[in-house]
Amino acid sequence: MTKLPQALLPPSASLEALQGNSRATIEWDKFAVALRRYPRSILVALLSAWTLLAAALWLALIIGIIGAIVGASYVGSSTFTLGTGQAGGILGSIAGFFIGAGIAFVFVYGQGIRSAGPHILISLLIGLVFAMVLTMLLIWLEHWLMYFRGYRPPSRREAAIIAPVLADVQAAMGLDSLPQILVADHGALGAWAHTRHVVLSHRLLDEPREQLAAVLAHELHHWRSGDSVALLLVSMCAWPLAFTANAIVCIRNVAGKFGAFITGSLLWPFTVISRFIISPVLALESRKYEYEADAAAVRAGFGLGMMQTLEALKIFEPARTGWETVVNASHPPNEYRIEAVEEDMAVIATAPAPSEIEPKPRRRTRQTSKAMSSSGDAD
Fold this sequence. Notes:
Layout: H1 15-19, H2 29-37, H3 39-49, H4 53-77, H5 82-116, H6 119-148, H7 156-173, E1 180-184, E2 191-193, E3 197-201, H8 209-225, H9 227-237, H10 239-266, H11 268-313, H12 322-328, H13 334-350, H14 366-378
Parallel strand pairs: 1-3
Antiparallel strand pairs: 2-3
Helix pairs in contact: 2-9, 3-9, 3-11, 4-5, 6-9, 7-8, 8-11, 9-10, 10-11, 11-13
């Protein structure tokens, strides 16, 4: 990567801050953080990808359709009047579908789990180890994958915009190190935190300084807290689902809606699992971390910029792939985030200054009591 001339940057900017630390190193503590912050999402992703859930859904649909036909014909033929026959046929079709689908799903998925017995734990453990290996590989290759996706180092003009803001954010958040900052040229307006990089869209640099600082603080908190590693690990635990979601989007872009319809019709169980199982469980854990990242920006002094960003952009982490659409569906509503930012700013505004806080009385330890008593005896 070509280094930026130091003379072309403003005095407060540093070349090291822009380039960050993108060496191929693995921070092992981030995996412990991922397991601690997203345990339910990781478990559900493993259960969804490493069991017969997709096959059970497919068979449930087929048997459900057969049950609907049998139910409609049986109930409809057992009635006498035309109106009653139509109503009975509809009710029989619905009942037959759900009964057939339920029996098929329980038989395939339940029987598979029961027959596996303790071996299911071994399968999930293998899946977790496999996911961790893939995650480490992607972290190691991330520097090259970023350029493969079209992200690039900032130009001299962009560096002059980013560097002083980044230096202020780093000082306000007390960060000892920084990820490498890259720029995306596509039309989306947003920012994304990766495991060793933070990507800013080119259009984001045209936003006011306070908004850019708030977005940087938000993304840097995700990076520091290990959320990027955690979400990558979740996606690797559910890699067939992530691959399918991305494939449907790619086929839609290449072959149009008809190609996406054919692909979606064949792979619909993966879409159902991603949207209605993975995403709701992920929302239970990731929403509080989105509030946490917003609060970190407020504590760093960028609350007004965060509020302006949420009001203007609505979402500043837009989805770039099909799987990211599933992940972003777990974000809290923007209005709730704005209210939370307002509450955090009000708390900070009403908090007493450090000098105004009365020191807490010290607990009298046994040694202190003895010292006081001995000094009293000496007097």
